[in-house]
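Posted in: Structural Biology > Protein-Ligand Complexes

Title: Requesting predicted complex, flavin mononucleotide in pocket

I'd be grateful if someone could produce the 3D structure tokens for the following input. Sequence and ligand are given below.
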Amino acid sequence: MDFKELAAKRYSVRKFLDKPVDKEKLDLILAAAQNAPTAHNRQPQRILVIDQAAGLAKVDIVTRCRFGAPLVFMICYDKTEVSIRKYDQENSGWVDASIVTTQMMFQAEDIGLGTTWVMHFDPAKVREQFQLPEQLFPVAFLPTGYPAADAAPSELHFQRHPLDKLVYYGSIAQYP
Ligand SMILES: Cc1cc2nc3c(=O)[nH]c(=O)nc-3n(C[C@H](O)[C@H](O)[C@H](O)COP(=O)(O)O)c2cc1C
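-- Reply #1 --
Done. Output follows.
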């Protein structure tokens, strides 16, 4: 499968089989997280692998979006390790962690696993439940597993803006 097919095939899986993810597949996803580009190569991503009952129960406390997945990644960035842009002090944490999560998502898809990116959680609750050190900021949960036989894309998956709303050639001064 080439990238075009992979990207077209991926959708947010919200129903999983009750089947653990094999170690080789977990390792491939973590390698994709490691290979991701980050600003100035600072590599601020920190990833918690949650696949034991106690941890999954905590995920269920902080979000309703686990969808029964047997494995959940929590992707954080370390605030002390990010790159800071000198012009406006913007930091690269969200962007770095998002690229990492995206690579993990596509690697999972490539090996027959499904994922859904989850942002719907209260970071303060996550901090409390997982005893997150202050310097770590949680960006995403990524429930991961084998899609259930009747897993299917949501309606939103098919609602894509036309390219002429998204893309501007040469000038965007007249937006919108
Ligand atoms: C940054 C981000 C946050 C998201 N948060 C959630 C979430 O909390 N819960 C959820 O069910 N889906 C979440 N999604 C999935 C989107 O709803 C989904 O990607 C979008 O509707 C397009 O559908 P598709 O992924 O099936 O193509 C999130 C996706 C992104 C990129």
